[in-house]
Amino acid sequence: RGLDCRDMRNASDPYDEEEDDDNLSSERQIVVGICSMMKKSNSKPMTQIMERLCKFEYITVVIFPEDVILNEPVEKWPLCDCLISFHSKGFPLDKAVSYAKLRNPLLINDLHMQYFIQDRREVYRILQEEGIDLPRYAVLNRDPDRPKECNLVEGEDHVEVNGEVFHKPFVEKPVSAEDHNVYIYYPTPAGGGSQRLFRKIGSRSSVYSPESAVRKTGSYIYEEFMPTDGTDVKVYTVGPDYAHAEARKSPALDGKVERDSEGKEIRYPVMLTAMEKLVARKVCLAFKQTVCGFDLLRANGHSFVCDVNGFSFVKNSMKYYDDCAKVLGNMVMRELAPQLHIPWSIPMEAEDIPIVPTTSGTMMELRCVIAVIRHGDRTPKQKMKMEVRNALFFDLFEKYGGYKSGKLKLKKPKQLQEVLDIARQLLSELGQHNDCEIEEKKSKLEQLKTVLEMYGHFSGINRKVQLTYLPNGQLKASSEEEDTLMSGPSLLLVLKWGGELTPAGRVQAEELGRAFRCMYPGGQGDYAGFPGCGLLRLHSTYRHDLKIYASDEGRVQMTAAAFAKGLLALEGELTPILVQMVKSANMNGLLDSDSDSLTDCQQRVKARLHDIMQKDQDFTEEDYQKLAPTSSPSLLNSMKIIQNPVRTCDKVYALIQSLTRQIRSRLEDPKSASLQLYHSETLELMLQRWSKLERDFRMKNGRYDISKIPDIYDCIKYDTQHNSSLGLEDTLELFRLSRALADIIIPQEYGISKLEKLDIASAYCLPLFRKIQLDLQRTHEDEAVNKLHPLYSRGVMSPGRHVRTRLYFTSESHVHSLLSIFRYGGLLNEGKDEQWKQAMDYLSAVTELNYMTQIVIMLYEDNNKDPSSEERFHVELHFSPGVKVCPDEENAPMGFGFRPASAKVCGSLSLLILEDLSKDEPDHTALTEPLSIHRKSPLLANRKAGSMEVRTFSLMAWYEFGISGETFQEGGVGQTLLLPSREHAGYWWQRGALCRNDFGIGPLFLCAAGFEGCSMVPSIYPLETLHNSLSLKQVDEFLSKVCESRNETLTKTMKFKKNTQVPCSGGWANRSVRDDQYRDGK
Q1: Where is the stretch described as Disordered (predicted)?
Q2: How far out from the chain centre does Cα 714 lie?
Q3: Which of 232, 574, 804, 851 is the most exposed place for a label (fewest CB within 10 A)?
Q4: In whole angstroms, what is the distance from residue 42 CA to residue 764 CA?
Q5: This prediction's pTM
């Protein structure tokens, strides 16, 4: 079987006599017997888990040979202290029961209850007695000798069983759990017939049959069909306090089994709700099966148990194998070590309560983590606007309800196909009749057609079309068209494409998620010395209340999914993680903003910016006052680089012309014409986006459209990082100049003065601020829905404790706005608070809020303080400007580290430097895992140490976060582990010596081998603490003040605009988040 474990043996020869009880010593081993059919004993999950179980110092595993089980009397079966035995086809359960009665071992799974599990009627009876939700059902018992004598009445589209009516679709299950021939009957209007499910054969798990009549022999359970959107959830418990859940495509959907490249059925981990976790506990205890699998159907906002399978392991999850062995091993040792006088200390599950030293020196419990995070690296966003008047566009606008609000977004494949069909039809008519009455410009229609035909398929993540009704037409003012005003109504068509999350963006998000685990304390007992495992322990034992929100943009949602994958050590593709775990927040304005609808204030700001940046002269002192009234160093530096904005734009325009010429010459060269660029882009597509910028940046009147500057910087930043292998000339100069311009335009579009910044910021993110306030408030309120039920939580020391995590993934606008409110909203007085002044100086020096920018709020509770005291709750505010911009790494502003005061608190503890971590010492974790983006699990089995399994953990989180002297666990002689602070770690943290690269960005600068093209993935700036000693009262009052101030502004605005919808700023009044929308931890 390939088992390389000295403690696992196959007991081909049963013991001749029992071991003498007096001969117990410290060498006494606890024997765990595996009694099952050979196919089950030799399965990969069993092998993986038993290998890990052997790493417990005092545990030996013995596998009962199948020949002995089937042919020998139980008196000759091997002896064991603990028995893992379960029924499968051909297994003599009666003999196993007799053996247990004879030897009285500790039973992992009760044997008598396994008789009940084989009968679906008994399973449903037990579930019902436990108060567990089931689909509505009825049992039809037939006498085999008189099958027609039964209480069944069959109609065309329903059956009546014992007086209970079931309309199609309904499910028909044999009462024997061993019979997998389950049928689903469909109603006549849907085509009738039935889907016949069976145990998987090759790539099939069901077939469709035209037969609509129910079976006439045999006993069955009839139950209501639950609409689950094609997904089943399989739950696997290991004891009442641990459950792993996976979703798979429902076998009833099309009968085809989705398999991966290795031929295994595709499943993916999902999160269980608080109620589902309670159900898992109830199932485990009711059926007395420590290791137990059961099926959940999620339908109509509820979860229903539809099957209990008994002993069942997860397949292909290293994390589950680690967890399962740990839980089983500790359970065996806890029960048997005292009886056998084995010197083993019982883990007290001290990691249940995540306690850390605060920066002020007190010990407090982490209660809440809130993070607002910008999406990862993306392809350049592109946009084309055209005015359309053809009746076909108006018909489409009316078809999808555009007249209700005057606006329409088209993202679905069917909708985009209709737009493409219209473009093709109009172009065809233009080609046949040049004088036909089609007002749409041919070049625009061709671009619309080209973009919609890209990729060969539609995806809302890639492209979208927006239509806006213009009652009187629109003044055309682009570089391509004359300034004319046409009478009559029209539609403004805005086509957006690009902006997809890149492979580098996925890596950034996943690695940040993995590093983010280290924000959470924990690691006592079995997790000693494993940074980040405190979070995994909390999550697997139901005390991590996690919800992930994302705006409706594809790049934002995929970033959230990749982050979740890294945070929770999930495996598999991102799409299913996205579907199951990321909540879309577009229904209430929480994370989305309509960029085409600006506040009055923002429109005025943009107009002023445009005027200032159109002056063909060096910036004057007056310009400095107008453009940078906050005296931000980053703004002042950019203005010094630019000097004369028009001359700088001239240089940028000339550099773009040079770039397009170079790309054209490459296209003419046969050697490079078919060159594949990063993320499957071609030279032709690259030329298209730069040619469009060249056309649009300089208008026909000779002036520059400064709204294109962010797009220019976006494109050159992308090409500098991802397509540098082309060797195009002067790209770094274009990067330098466009960045200087963008460092002015982008932040100042969100307000020039402090008051403007606050007005625009509150218009963007008032709902998010309200939600953050609720998150902080509800953390310390009684929320039974998000906690384990105390009556069912034996074995967990703190069932009432949980850590709430709320992650909000969004775009640049929300991150700018949120930071503006913290900076200028009056949270603290810079003159009176030195730490806040230093934080504001640091933020003023930050030039760009790049991809993966994070704003993190952490809430701690001191349970020794009076609940009404301000000292009871402690709030910390942290920030990272996101991904490092490679060419300018050396000039990056430096903060004061993450939780900088903690180094003083822990100063007396010994610091383990990098060299020490690699030594194989008995009391330290060996950190030997190579840096790689292709890890299956961050926890790898390494070696035995006492009764716990020691694992390696990636150094990546430590390098990346640059966490300063932070303790990840307390207690345990020689097991206290501190991360190197910057002073100790400067060599590898700051200079990137381990990678020896030119950008000095440390070990996370990885080559994305295995992704399309070859691109470097830059690392992310470590979190910097802005303030680490705020009280919850302070923060709550500040958030209330911001919300009240915004409401007053809205009230005044609405008085002037009673009969019109207020753009953006007023819009929040109509779609603001109601407090009760977020009750029960939503």
Answers
A1: 1-25
A2: 25
A3: 232
A4: 58
A5: 0.65
